[in-house]
């Protein structure tokens, strides 16, 4: 379980193909990985992965073919930056919202708009089938970042999209500040919305 508050950036040092899957080597010395335990859960651009081969400079993580196909990790290249967050521990402050690290789909950036005072607005196209899970003032996770939805628009031709505002700090210390129109983002709906939908569907 995570909070969606990014703790630092990692960089892909190597990608090794393993059958239908792959192993990533991720450098993140600023997060003191030598203090981690082997098998620790790490949110890597929003996707919960298991830390292996840990040393002072970083860690490795195995991704299945399913993970590569259903997230943006299938398109990663050496040198790409990734948002990282260690798993929430009992007693930690919950500053974002509960994030599982289980990606629902890939959302697409429709627009990037610079606002006043260093703020930015992103318009994000919702992956097909998840339109009902986004709501104004609700929570969403994009590439591991906990965000609040400002507005939801059901567009006749474009589909459903929502907007989020990014403050200067988040823009500077996460990969969101590097986004361009057309980029994909790992998308996770709010945990509460997921279970409410299941409860309502099962009761019908």
Do you know the CATH architecture of the largest domain? Beta Barrel
* CATH fold naming of the largest domain: Elongation Factor Tu (Ef-tu), domain 3
By DSSP (H or I, 4+ residues per run), the number of helices equals 3
The total number of structural domains is: 2
Strand content: 35-45%
| CATH class designation of the largest domain | Mainly Beta
Helix content: 10-25%
Quickly give the structural class. mainly beta
Q: How far is the first residue's CA from the last residue's CA? A: 30 Å
Q: Unreliable stretches, pLDDT < 50, 5 or more residues?
A: none
Label the overall shape.
globular
Q: Could you tell me the radius of gyration in angstroms?
A: 17 Å
N-to-C SSE series?
Answer: EEEEEHEEEEEEEHEH
Please give the largest β-sheet: 7 strands, antiparallel
Mean pLDDT: 94
Q: Could you walk me through the main structural features you see in this protein, from its secondary elements to its overall organization?
A:
- This protein has 204 residues and is mainly beta.
- The protein folds into 2 domains: 8-86, Elongation Factor Tu (Ef-tu), domain 3 (Beta Barrel); 105-202, Elongation Factor Tu (Ef-tu), domain 3.
- 12% of the residues lie in helices and 40% in strands.
- The protein is built from 3 helices and 13 strands.
- The strands form 2 sheets. Strands 10-9-13-7-8-12-11 form a 7-stranded antiparallel sheet. The protein has a 6-stranded antiparallel sheet with strand order 4-3-6-1-2-5.
- A hairpin with a 5-residue loop joins strand 7 and strand 8.
């Amino acid at each position: 379980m995570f909070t969606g508050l990014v703790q630092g950036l990692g960089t892909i040092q190597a990608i090794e193909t393993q059958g239908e899957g792959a192993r990533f080597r991720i450098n993140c010395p600023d997060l003191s990985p030598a203090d981690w335990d082997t098998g620790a859960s790490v949110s890597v651009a929003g996707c919960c992965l298991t830390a292996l081969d840990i040393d002072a400079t970083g860690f490795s993580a195995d991704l299945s073919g399913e993970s590569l196909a259903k997230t943006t990790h299938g398109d990663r290249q050496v040198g790409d930056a990734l948002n990282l967050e260690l798993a929430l521990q009992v007693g930690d402050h919950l500053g974002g919202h509960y994030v599982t690290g289980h990606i629902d789909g890939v959302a697409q950036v429709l627009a990037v708009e610079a606002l006043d005072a260093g703020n930015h607005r992103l318009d994000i196209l919702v992956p097909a089938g998840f339109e009902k899970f986004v709501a104004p003032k609700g929570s969403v996770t994009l590439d591991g970042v906990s965000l609040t939805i400002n507005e939801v628009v059901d567009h006749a031709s474009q589909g459903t999209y929502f907007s989020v505002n990014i403050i200067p700090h988040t823009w500077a210390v996460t990969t969101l500040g590097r986004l361009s129109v057309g980029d994909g983002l790992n998308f996770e709906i709010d945990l509460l919305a997921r279970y409410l939908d299941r409860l309502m569907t099962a009761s019908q």
